Amino acid sequence: MDINTLFGHLWQDYLKQCPSAESIHELLGQGQAIINDHVAFRTFRAPGLGIDALAQHFLALGYEAKGEYHFEQKKLYARHYEHPDHTQPKVFISELMIEQCSPELQAIVAGITSQLEPGFADNIETVYGGAPWQVSQAQYQALLAESEYAAWLSAFGFRANHFTVSVNELDQFGTLEGVNGALKQAGFVLNSSGGEIKGSADVLLEQSSTMADKVAVSFSDGELTIPACFYEFALRYPMADGELYTGFVAASADKIFESTNVS
Ligand code: OOG
Ligand code: NI
User: What keywords would UniProt list here (predicted)?
Assistant: First the structure.
């Protein structure tokens, strides 16, 4: 599978989990192609399922590991990957450090991940396959009480949890304020945790995001409509050498995670 085919699968899956993406494209691109800055994945730090298990497919396509990021409060660790062809989207993969979570959470996660065959993540289709396990509404709610991230991951599994519009590449908008204004005027709800704009020119990256679209999910014991996937917007600033900064900013990312929060 080549990169474009992989991102094609990711995009098709993402549109089902974030139906707003289509109208946001029209609003921001006004018929033009949209360039994606990055996509993001979530996983559990468990044998055969951690960051490396997902990253192997991107490494095989020529991606290289770059920055790493720590989120102590949320018990997350993340890495980002870049392709030598800078027109390809960057990839941000985080994992929940379940060994730091409560015994109750660990037991639920073990019950979920034990449903998978060894080597499950070695198949590239894993990265856009969604949740490969059965989970009940009670398990989802129990995870939610401790970790929004764990609950989301149990319900949605492996897929692009967001795509990110490169605002640098938009013709009609030059600032994130402009993008946010157009989105709000069109009725989209932005993630306001830590302010609508996360970061600044000083850290070479400004980001904003919508709150996730709500989608009906089939749990083992019935359906529940919950926050699914969201859209992000990124404006990058040049470094001293004139090249745009390509990394992420942990303090901003910490708030972007909250775009899938239930409450
Ligand atoms: C990732 C949040 C971080 C960014 O651009 O800083 C992020 C997530 O929600 O899984 O995407
Ligand atoms: Ni992002």
Answer: Dioxygenase, Iron, Oxidoreductase
pLDDT over 90 at 144, yes or no: yes
The answer to whether 165 and 195 are in contact (CB under 8 A) is no
Q: Which two tokens stand for residue 101?
A: 């979570």
Nearest to 232 by CA among 221, 248, 216: 248
Shortest-distance ligand to the CA of residue 198: 1
Number of domains in the chain: 1
Model-level ipTM above the cut of 0.90 = yes
Give residue 42 CA to ligand 1 midpoint distance, Å.
9
What CATH number corresponds to the domain at position 23?
3.10.180.50
Q: Is 90 helix (H, G, I), strand (E, B) or coil?
A: strand
**pLDDT tens by residue, 34-62:** 999 999 999 999 999 999 999 999 999 99
